[in-house]
Specification:
The structure holds 2 protein chains of 2 kinds. By secondary structure, chain A is of the alpha/beta class. Chain A has 19 helices and 20 strands. In chain A, helix 8 crosses helix 19 and helix 13 runs parallel beside helix 15. The N and C termini of chain B lie close together (7 Å). The chains are: A alpha/beta, B mainly alpha. At the A-B interface, helix 2 and helix 3 of A face helix 8 and helix 9 of B. Chain A: Belongs to the ABC transporter superfamily.
Chain lengths: 542, 305
C-alpha cells in the first residue's frame, strides 16, 4: 500500500439488538484505505460488508450499535456526535448506494438535490451551486445538463439516476467514495458504463474508492486491493492479482469457483414439440387520447417460440425487454394475441375450465423467493397446495408422503416442512418454490429469473439442482434471465429479446461464440469483459 | 391542468345527477308528508296546499320539475319554514357551517401533523405512546358522546364557555373542539405512520449520508413525503366533518345547515333535505378535486394530462 492512509479501521464491530438479544454482524474488522486507491470489500449477503461502511457513516439502523475504531485522517468517527460527523460525511467521505431508483428524493428536482450538500458544506450562492451542478452533470455524462438539471428522479432511467448519485458524491471533491453495490440493480450494458465512468473519474479526481460488492468481476476489473468478508470477519486480504491467482482461504476459493459451469446438450432434434407459440403479442393500453387512437405498449410483439421435450430455452434481455411477459403469455397467464399449442392441441382460446387440468403440467417459478411464498402457510402446506386442486381425492397422509419426497428431491430436510417460509434462506426458499412446482409432475416449467436474487454460490447450487431435475424427470424449461453466465450453463437454445421483439435466436453455442446482432454482441461484451480480465491476471501470475 | 379540472367538473355532473335522483326518490319512500299534523287539516286546505307545491302531479313529473329548477340554481321553497326558500335558509346557515368546518379542519391538520410527527421522531418513547393512545381514544369515541360531555363539563358545571348557541367566538370553541378531535386523531396516526416510513426510506438515508443537518433531513425530505397520505385523507375528512356537523350543530343548537338536515328529515321537508344533500355532495366533489390538485402539486410523479 503506497501513500498516506485516509481511512483506517481497527477492531470495528457492529451489533444489532434483536428480541433474542444482541447479534454481532461485524466482528472486529481491520481495514486500511490509502489515498487514491481502490479497495474492494467482497462477500456474500449477510457477510457484514455493507454494515461495516454504514457504521463509519453513522447510518446503522436504529437498533444498531458500532464499536471499535475508525479513523479518518486521524479523526475518530465511531461515537462522533452527529453534528461533527456531518462535517465529514457528504464532504470528505461520500457514498453511493445499491438502489438508484429510491436513493434520490422523488419530490425534488435533481439539481436541487445535488446542490444541497454543496450549499450545506461549502456555502456560497444558489447560482454558483447551480453552475457547479451543471459541471458535475456534464462530468458524469448526463446528456443536455441544462435541461436535465430540472428533471425529477422518476424522469430518469436507473443508469442516469446512478450517474446523478455519482455527481452528488463528487460535488465536494471527496477523499473517499464508498460505493455500495452501485451496479447490482442495473442492466449489464449500463453496469459497464457506470464502472467505466467511476474508473475514469477516479483517474481525473484522485479520490479513494471503497467498493462493496458480491460481484467478483467488478473486483477484478477495478480494485487494487481486496478484503474478503465472511460472517462479519475479514477472512483474507491482499492485492487483487495475487489474491485471485492464488487464494489461500477456502471461502475465497469457493467464491471464485462459484460461477456456474457446464453446458446443456441440445435435445434430440426429433424430440416431440411440447409448447409452441406463434406470433405471440402482448399489448398494454396506455390510454386513449381525445378522439385519437389508443396508445399501445407492445410488451411482446410478434414472437414465435417452440419448446421441445427436455429442451431449455434461455430468454435473455435487459429489463423492459418483455422476457417475463413472454414467459407469462406462454402459460396463458396474460391475455395475448397469436396462437399457442401445448402437446398438439390449440390452447390459444381455452377457457379456465379447459386450462385447469393443463395448469399442473405448466408450472412457473418466480424471481423473488421472499414474495412468492405465503408467509402464513407452513412449507408443507405451500408445497402440497397444488395437489389439493389437482388431485382432490388424495389422502392427507399421501399428500404428506409426496411432500417429503419432493423436499428430498430439491435437497431440503423434510423434517422442516412444518416451519414457515421466513425461517428459510433465499436459496432454500427457491428450493421450496421448485418443490411446489415439481410435486405436480409438470412437463414444462417457466423459470423467471430464479437465481437472480441469490448469491453466486447459491446460484450455482440451484442451477445444478435444476439440471439434475431436468435429467431425472424429462423436464422442459423456459429459463428467463438477464444473467448470461447462468443462462449459458442452463440453456441449449437462446432467444435474445429487446423492446418486445426477438433480436437474435439460435443454439446456445452459436449465440455465445458468434453473435450476429450488434445488440447481442454488446450484451456479451459487457458481461464477458469481467471474465477476460480474470484470465489475463491468472496467466500473468503463472 | 386547466383541461383536467374542466374534465373533472364535467364528470361531476352525472355524479350529481345520480345522487339527486336517488335522494329524491328515497325520501319520498318514507311514510308521511310535510303537511301531516296530529290533527288532520281540512281536506280542502290540504288540496290547495298540495296544488301549490305540485304534490298533485305524478312523482316523475315532480322530479322533472325539481331537476329543472335545480339546473337554474333554485332549490325550491322550504315546506316547514313557509316564508323562506331553501336558498334563503342556506344563505344564512352555510357561512356558519363553513366557519365551524374549516376551523375544525385547520386545527385537525395543524395539531394532528405536529403530534404525529413528534410521535414518529420519538418512536417508542412516552410521547409516542401518549399520542397513539390519545389518538386511538379519539377515534373510538363518537361525536354525539363527546359533544354533550364537553357541553356539560365546560358549559354547565364550570361555566367557562356557553353550553350552546351562536354569536361570539366563545360559542365556537366547544363545537370546533368536538368536531376536530376525531380528525386530529386520524391525522396524527396517519402522519406518524408515514413519517416513520419516510425516515426509513432510502432517500432519507441519502440525505443523512451527505451530512445534511437533522432539520433539513426531517423537515425537507421526510415530512414532505409524509404529507402525501395526509393530503389524500383530506377528501374523506371533509366528508366526515360535514356529517359530524349534523350531530354537533344539533346538540349545540348552531344555526348551520347540518341542523336543517335533521329537522328537514324529521319534518319531511323534502326540498330542505334535498338542498342539504345537493350542497354536501357538491362540497365533497369539489374538495376531492382540490385534494387531487394539491397532491399533484406535492408529488411530481403525479401528472394529470
Amino acid at each position: 500500500m503506497a501513500g498516506e492512509k485516509v481511512l483506517s479501521l481497527r477492531g470495528l464491530t457492529v451489533d444489532f439488538a434483536t428480541p433474542d438479544g444482541w447479534v454481532q454482524a461485524v466482528r472486529g474488522v481491520d481495514l486500511d484505505v490509502a489515498r487514491g486507491e481502490t479497495v474492494a470489500l467482497v462477500g456474500e449477503s449477510g457477510s457484514g460488508k455493507s454494515q461495516t461502511m454504514m457504521a463509519i457513516m453513522g447510518l446503522l439502523a436504529s437498533n444498531g450499535r458500532a464499536g471499535g475504531s475508525a479513523l479518518y485522517r486521524g479523526q475518530e468517527m465511531i461515537g462522533l456526535p452527529e453534528r461533527r460527523l456531518n462535517r465529514i460525511r457528504g464532504e470528505k467521505i461520500t457514498m453511493i448506494f445499491q438502489e438508484p431508483m429510491t436513493s434520490l428524493d422523488p419530490l425534488y428536482r435533481i439539481g436541487r438535490q445535488i446542490a444541497e450538500p454543496i450549499l450545506h458544506h461549502r456555502g456560497g450562492s444558489r447560482a454558483a451551486a447551480r453552475q457547479r451542478v451543471l459541471e458535475l452533470l456534464e462530468l458524469v455524462g448526463i446528456p443536455q445538463p441544462e435541461r436535465r438539471i430540472d428533471s425529477y428522479p422518476h424522469e430518469l432511467s436507473g443508469g442516469q439516476r446512478q450517474r446523478v448519485m455519482i455527481a452528488m458524491a463528487l460535488a465536494n471533491d471527496p477523499d473517499i467514495l464508498i460505493a455500495d453495490e452501485p451496479t447490482t440493480a442495473l442492466d449489464v450494458t449500463i453496469q459497464a458504463q457506470i464502472l467505466t465512468l467511476l474508473a475514469e473519474l477516479q483517474e481525473k479526481i484522485g479520490m479513494a474508492i471503497v467498493f462493496i460488492t458480491h460481484d467478483l468481476g467488478i473486483v477484478r476489473r477495478l480494485a487494487d486491493r481486496v478484503y474478503v468478508m465472511k460472517t462479519g470477519e475479514v477472512v483474507e486480504q491482499g492485492e487483487t492479482g495475487p489474491l485471485f491467482a492464488a487464494p489461500t482461504h477456502p471461502y475465497t476459493r469457493m467464491l471464485l469457483e462459484a460461477e456456474p459451469t457446464g453446458r446443456k446438450a441440445p435435445p434430440n432434434p426429433e424430440a416431440p414439440r411440447l409448447l409452441s407459440g406463434r406470433d405471440i403479442g402482448v399489448h398494454f393500453s396506455l390510454g386513449r387520447s381525445w378522439g385519437g387512437e389508443e396508445a399501445l405498449l407492445k410488451a411482446v410483439d410478434g414472437v414465435s417460440v417452440t419448446l421441445r421435450r427436455k429442451q431449455t430455452i434461455g430468454i435473455v434481455g435487459e429489463s423492459g425487454s418483455g422476457k417475463s411477459t413472454l414467459g407469462r403469455a406462454l402459460l396463458r397467464l396474460l391475455p395475448a394475441s397469436g396462437s399457442l399449442e401445448f402437446k398438439n392441441q390449440d390452447i390459444s382460446h381455452a377457457d379456465r375450465a379447459r386450462m385447469r387440468p393443463l395448469r399442473r403440467q405448466l408450472q412457473l417459478v418466480f424471481q423473488d423467493p421472499f414474495g412468492s411464498l405465503s408467509p402464513r402457510m407452513t412449507v408443507g402446506q405451500v408445497i402440497t397446495e397444488g395437489l389439493i386442486v389437482h388431485e382432490k381425492d388424495l389422502s392427507k397422509s399421501e399428500r404428506d408422503r409426496r411432500a417429503i419426497a419432493a423436499m428430498r428431491e430439491v435437497g431440503l430436510d423434510p423434517a422442516m416442512r412444518n416451519r414457515y417460509p421466513h425461517e428459510f434462506s433465499g436459496g432454500q426458499r427457491q428450493r421450496i418454490a421448485i418443490a411446489r412446482a415439481l410435486i405436480l409432475k409438470p412437463e414444462v416449467m417457466v423459470l423467471d429469473e430464479p437465481t437472480s436474487a441469490l448469491d453466486r454460490s447459491v446460484q450455482k447450487q440451484i442451477v445444478d439442482l435444476l439440471r439434475d431435475l431436468q435429467e431425472a424427470h424429462d423436464l422442459s424449461y423456459i429459463f428467463i434471465s438477464h444473467d448470461l453466465a447462468v443462462v449459458r450453463a442452463m440453456a441449449d437454445y437462446i432467444i435474445v429479446m429487446r423492446h418486445g421483439q426477438i433480436v437474435e435466436e439460435g443454439p446456445a453455442e452459436e449465440i455465445f461464440e458468434a453473435p450476429r446482432a450488434a445488440y447481442t454482441q454488446a450484451l456479451l461484451a459487457a458481461a464477458v469483459d469481467n471474465r477476460r480480465f480474470r484470465t489475463a491476471v491468472q496467466e500473468a501470475a503463472k | 391542468m386547466a383541461a383536467y379540472v374542466l374534465r373533472r367538473l364535467l364528470g361531476a355532473v352525472p355524479t350529481m345527477f345520480v345522487i339527486v335522483t336517488i335522494a329524491f326518490f328515497m325520501i319520498r319512500l318514507a311514510p308521511g308528508g310535510p303537511f301531516d299534523l296530529e290533527r288532520p287539516l281540512d281536506p280542502l286546505i290540504m288540496q290547495n296546499l298540495e296544488r301549490a307545491y305540485n304534490f298533485d302531479k305524478p312523482l316523475w313529473h315532480q322530479y322533472l320539475i325539481y331537476l329543472g329548477n335545480l339546473a337554474q340554481g333554485d332549490l325550491g321553497p322550504s315546506f316547514t319554514r313557509r316564508d323562506f326558500s331553501v336558498v334563503d335558509l342556506f344563505r344564512v346557515g352555510l357561512p356558519v357551517s363553513i366557519t365551524i368546518g374549516s376551523l375544525s379542519m385547520l386545527i385537525a391538520l395543524l395539531v394532528g401533523t405536529v403530534l404525529g410527527a413528534l410521535a414518529a421522531l420519538r418512536q417508542n418513547s412516552w410521547v409516542d405512546y401518549l399520542v397513539v393512545g390519545t389518538a386511538t381514544f379519539g377515534i373510538t369515541i363518537p361525536t354525539f358522546v363527546i359533544a354533550p360531555i364537553l357541553s356539560l363539563a365546560f358549559g354547565v358545571m364550570m361555566g367557562w364557555l356557553p353550553a350552546g348557541g351562536w354569536g361570539t367566538w366563545k360559542h365556537m370553541v366547544l363545537p370546533v373542539v368536538t368536531l376536530s378531535l376525531p380528525q386530529i386523531a386520524v391525522v396524527a396516526r396517519l402522519t406518524r405512520g408515514a413519517t416513520i416510513e419516510a425516515l426509513r426510506s432510502n432517500h432519507v438515508r441519502t440525505a443523512r449520508a451527505y451530512g445534511l443537518p437533522t432539520r433539513v433531513v426531517v423537515g425537507v425530505h421526510a415530512l414532505r413525503a409524509a404529507m402525501l397520505p395526509v393530503v389524500s385523507y383530506l377528501g374523506p375528512a371533509a366528508a366526515s366533518l360535514l356529517t359530524g356537523s349534523v350531530v354537533v350543530e344539533t346538540i349545540f343548537g348552531i344555526p348551520g345547515i347540518g341542523r336543517y338536515f335533521v329537522q328537514g328529515a324529521l319534518g319531511r321537508d323534502y326540498t330542505l333535505v334535498m338542498g342539504t344533500v345537493v350542497v354536501i355532495a357538491l362540497f365533497v366533489i369539489v374538495f376531492n378535486l382540490i385534494v387531487d390538485i394539491l397532491y399533484a402539486w406535492l408529488d411530481p410523479r403525479v401528472r394529470y394530462d
